[in-house]
Every structure is written in structure tokens, then in C-alpha cells.
Amino acid sequence: MPCRTEFSLFRSSSIQYGRDVAFLGADTDDNAGDAQAFLAQHRVIYPSYQASRSQLGAILPGGIESLPTTIFVNREGKVAYVHIGQYVSQGTLDADIQKYAR
Q1: In this predicted structure, what is the pLDDT of residue 82?
Q2: I need a labelling partner for 64 at 20 to 30 A (CA). Which of 29, 57, 72, 76 fits?
């Protein structure tokens, strides 16, 4: 449930930074129907896709250690930072966005 818990933080950040930063959600290790139902109830302005941990390995060659994981990719397409675990505050997420995604 940590992914669902931090979801509102990402929704808020995407509204605040959406003109400067691209957001993309990955529904990983979820039943596709459950993920679609959740997204229908909790709308966001960014796309979200079903993806396996192995598919995300194309972005993060070492693989995904645990969920949730947030991957920051810079303008050059390189992984700038990987945050493993749940964001627990808006301030921490926003600070990472400002540092790694802008």
C-alpha cells in the first residue's frame, strides 16, 4: 500500500511541476484491473502504464529492489537519482524533483 499512500504527493507535484517535468506512472506487480480501477477513482494528469520489474530494468539495469521506487531521469535521458521506498512528505518529494528533475 505504500504506492497508494504516496500517490497524492505525486498528484500534487505533477500539478505544480507539470510544465517543467514529465511524470510517468508505472503500475508494477499490480493486477491490471485493480490498477485501472484505482486510477479511475484517483485521476492524475500524467500517463500511467502497466510494467513489470523486468521491463523497468531497461531504465534501471540493476533492477528494481523494492516498491515503491521513483526513478529520476534527466534531460539527457540518464538516470539522475533513484529513490527507493515511499515518499512520506510533499517537501521531500518536491526537494528531489527540484534537485534531480529540473
Answers
A1: 95
A2: 76
